[in-house]
Amino acid sequence: MSATRNGSSPEPLLEVRGLTAGFGAGPVLFGIDLDVAGGELVALVGANGAGKSTLLGVLSGLVRATSGSIVLGGETVTNARPEVLVRKGIAHVPQGRRLFGTLSVEKNLLLGAYLRRDREIGDDIARVLDHFPALKDKLAREAGTLSGGEQQMVAIGRGLMAGPRILMLDEPSLGLAPIMVEEMFRVIGDINRAGVTVLLVEQNTEHALALAHRAFVLESGRVVLAGTGRELLANARVREAFLGL
User: Fold this and answer.
1) What is the DSSP string of 177-208?
2) Helical (H) or strand (E) element with 91
3) In the predicted model, is pLDDT for residue 9 greater than 70?
């Protein structure tokens, strides 16, 4: 099944071709091909160990590609350093939040803008708080004292503070209560509708595919299915493997 881009841009914002990567024990990704158009929300789904987080690590410069190419906005950025990729517009919100627990919420958010020199940082904090109003009265609180859901809000807000062209989210619903999972996916949809391109790694397959314009299914480090979110939700193989239907 081929995946058709849902966007007006003739060229993808992010284009990955033949990407292979891994660690000392050997490759984890094998010849990954995918693309993300500007303004899209694209989901990566698959079982534990499929290579989803490794792929985000390669895209953000934390894991080295051994072959293949990554092109961002028409510029080849394969194996660029993480700080270079942040400047070029890739923000990675990793699994596990990784906040500075003894720093305030406000300082954690400002750390997302550490490479910026523009005058719109204050306006962007206001926009983050519009997405996450629960944080408005907690800016002075130490991040480590927040609930898991609130910490995830801070982590996503910190990613947004980089002013990204593409926001990569790794398992944003992990460990959250069901009511907070619903809220988190609602806000991710709002962020995308506000104009931020999103690449979402998520094991909550049903929520991810319902939200995504397009999606890719990874299995053992390879893309095995691709299509619109709606197509993959209706796919018998996906329903059996990931939805228990």
Assistant:
1) -HHHHHHHHHHHHHHHHTT-EEEEE-S-HHHH
2) strand 90-93
3) no
CA 14 to chain centre: 13
Three-class DSSP category at 140: coil
pLDDT interval class at 7 (50, 70, 90): very low
* Contact by Cβ (8 Å): 78, 61: no
* Alpha helix positions (H), the chain: 52-59, 82-88, 105-111, 121-131, 148-160, 178-193, 205-211, 229-234, 236-242
And the tokens for 162? 């980089």
pLDDT in tens, 142-171: 999 999 999 999 999 999 999 999 999 999
For Cα atoms 198, 201, 205, give the angle at the middle one, nearest 5 degrees: 110
Give dist(CA 8, CA 233) in Å, integer.
24
Does residue 120 carry a pLDDT above 90?
no
What three-state secondary structure class fits 87?
Answer: helix
216, 229, 241 from 1: Cα distances, Å: 10, 12, 17
Q: How far is CA 186 from the centre of its chain?
A: 15
How much is the pTM? 0.91
